[in-house]
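Mods, move this if it's the wrong board.
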Amino acid sequence: MARALTVLQLLPALESGGVERGTLEIAAGLVQAGHRSLVMSSGGQLVSRLTAQGSEHIEAPIGRKSLWTLRWVPRLRRLLREQQVDILHVRSRFPAWIAWLAWRGMPVEQRPRLVTTVHGLYSVNRYSRIMTRGEAVIAVSDSARRYVLENYPGFDAERLHCIERGIDPMIFPHNYRPPESWLSRWYRDYPFLLERQLLTLPGRITRLKGHTDFLKLLARLVADELPVYGLIVGGEDPAHADYLQEIRDQVQALGLQSFITFAGHRMDVRDIYAVSNCVFSLSSKPESFGRTVREALAIGTPVIGYSHGGVGESLELAYPAGRVPPGDIDALENTTRRLLEYPPEVESCPFTTVQEMVEQTLELYRELAG
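Not the wrong board. Structure tokens:
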């Protein structure tokens, strides 16, 4: 029987997002398989869920981009020795520098095995190169795999492992319908949606997520008196307060006050996907994966997205009718009109599951630990 491992995952915080969710999924898989799961971050709303699953959380501001954070290098090195960590898994660039400096300063025979995950198609520079320094490097999609190979010449491809992010088919079953109790509350809160088609843009309120293009699209459809309504679902980060105000000002300028709602962070996104006529993914820069695209498609909701990066990869696989050239508002409008009137059925697609992702990752850990 394989020995139990101690695995430490590092990331900036545990608030919300794909990196955070992947961390929790691997942590839960480790505990269920009888391993010890440690996570280091600055904390956040997901810590209670992490610890309830049986993992241990170590609070440290390792994502703060400051020279002062370098004081955590010797502390982390000491922690790795004291906790006898077998696998050190890093998921973000600044924590990766802290981890690498701590790891490099240890005697070779005392080091844990170092794993990095390329979660994003980062700007190509020395700072980002740290994500290729792992003894094993995980790419979350084929787009992320190509990004590493194309942008870092000389990288040893044998260290690169493509392990797609997973969708839980129990949480996102095909043809999912929300319970009647949820539908009653939803239409009590938004009775006008009984007579309108719902267009949903999920994702945190950050400049890259395409809110401006979404509002331009909505304005065109409203001007043509189409019965549509826009919903922006995503947490409001205080660090991006100025951008949020820009978006709200744009809503006013376009006269969309009666045609859009900012729903904030929601725990019922699956139900919102299910009542949406279309879900959108309009990031101005290519994303490495695009989890919301696969979640919506998994339950059978049409998705319209810019066809680059992981979003384009998912649409090509499961719903090519929803692909739009990046930044092309005319094509975005035409595709939206067509799919609202004659939406092709979203067939069930064999996306990678969470269980498959966890099993592949744990198998990599076991191979590295020897």
